[in-house]
Design goal:
Elements (H helix, E strand, L loop, with lengths): L11 H19 L6 H12 L3 E2 H7 L4 H13 L3 E6 L2 E9 L1 H21 L5 H16 L9 H4 L9
Antiparallel strand pairs: 1-3, 2-3
Helix pairs in contact: 1-5, 2-5, 3-4
Length: 162
């Protein structure tokens, strides 16, 4: 392809990066610096799936295992999650939210929803549904296990109910 024929404004990767930039701007304005989007993903994943090991948690939150490890360490240091040795396998840690972690999820949830709403505010309901379908299909098709959507990694798991 001739570079003269390449239209940056129509390049999928460029548009996805731009959408991520917009998401980051809305997150900073509405949610603030804490929790970060990956931290919220971990907190919400533990809210729905308490007592998860770190590998499962990384899959639930769609984070690379090393990124998840860093996020877990930061949230543990802030007393938002707890760690306990798995009695069935003493080599594993089971992670759970502390009451402060549950409160943080509840405190920012409306703002997180507002971020998502603003991100797609220019789309009608049908286009919003189609966008979710397309993004889910695209992320589910990844050949890298750590970037697959949680539905692929956690098939058969049911969220915990309060």
């Amino acid at each position: 392809m001739d570079p003269a024929d390449f239209v940056l404004a129509q390049a999928q990767g460029h548009l996805i990066r731009r959408a991520q930039q917009i998401h980051t701007e809305y997150w900073a304005a509405l949610v603030g610096p804490e929790p970060t989007s990956p931290q919220f993903a971990v907190l919400l994943s533990l809210f729905h799936h308490p007592a998860s090991d770190q590998s499962t948690l990384a899959a639930l939150a769609s984070l690379h295992p090393s990124t998840c490890q860093d996020v877990v360490a930061r949230l543990h240091a802030k007393h938002l999650l707890s760690r306990a040795v798995d009695p069935a396998d003493r080599r594993r840690w089971l992670l759970d939210l502390t009451e402060e972690g549950r409160e943080q999820v509840r405190a920012v949830l409306a703002d997180v929803e507002e971020v998502g709403d603003r991100l797609v505010e220019s789309l009608n309901d049908e286009d919003r549904a189609q966008l979710i379908t397309l993004l889910s299909t695209m992320t589910s098709a990844s050949t890298d296990s750590w970037v697959r959507t949680p539905a692929v990694e956690t098939e058969g798991l049911e969220p915990a109910r309060e």
